[in-house]
């Protein structure tokens, strides 16, 4: 009825919220652009430095040590997947209105896009305490 307001958002983690964060074209496009930003800002950096940068941009904190190994392993899996199927990488990068940067290898950008999508969908990014 809009007769009262609540000045703080309650924490919610519903299946519908997870589906939107993972699949909505706006969120996929945001992940693509975050990945492109990290890859272009740190072209000579290693995966762990890039991952730290990405996590800091989104959350303001470094990657927790408990998450780091799984994220690096997942990145390697995505790299392998997209190197074997370039069409899948290109399809992912077509999502959204902003075209993917052409100076970045499509398979690499697609792999990092999936990592960025996970970071953007994480509790550290969406739940404010």
Provide an overview of this structure.
This protein has 129 residues and is mostly helical. The chain has seven helices and no strands. α1 packs across α2 (25-41) and α2 (25-41) packs across α6 (106-121). The two termini are 27 Å apart. The mean pLDDT is 87.
Architecture blueprint of SSEs:
Layout: H1 15-23, H2 25-41, H3 47-59, H4 68-84, H5 86-93, H6 106-121, H7 123-126
Q: Helices and strands: which structural class?
A: mainly alpha
Series of H and E elements: HHHHHHH
Approximately how much helix is present in the residues? 55-70%
What's the β-strand tally? Answer: 0
| Shape descriptor | globular
* Number of helical elements: 7
Oligomer: single chain
Biggest beta sheet summary: none
- Strand content range: under 5%
Q: Span between N and C termini?
A: 27 Å
Radius of gyration: 16 Å
Poorly predicted runs: none
- What is the residue-mean pLDDT, rounded to a whole number? 87
Can I get a quick summary?
With 129 residues, the protein is mainly alpha-helical. It has helices at residues 15-23, 25-41, 47-59, 68-84, 86-93, 106-121, 123-126. The chain contains seven helices and no strands.
Key structural traits:
single chain, 129 residues, mainly alpha, 7 helices, 0% strand, globular
């Amino acid at each position: 009825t809009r007769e009262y307001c609540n000045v703080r958002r309650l924490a919610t983690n519903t299946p519908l919220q997870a589906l939107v964060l993972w699949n909505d074209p706006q969120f996929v496009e945001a992940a693509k652009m975050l990945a492109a930003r990290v890859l272009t800002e740190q072209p000579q950096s290693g995966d762990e430095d890039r991952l730290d940068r990405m996590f800091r941009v989104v959350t303001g904190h470094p990657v927790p040590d408990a998450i780091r190994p799984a994220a690096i392993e997942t990145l390697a899996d995505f790299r392998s997947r997209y190197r074997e199927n370039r069409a899948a990488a290109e399809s992912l990068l077509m999502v959204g209105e902003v075209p993917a940067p052409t100076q970045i290898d499509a398979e690499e950008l697609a792999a990092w896009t999936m990592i960025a999508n996970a970071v953007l969908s994480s509790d550290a990014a969406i739940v404010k305490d």
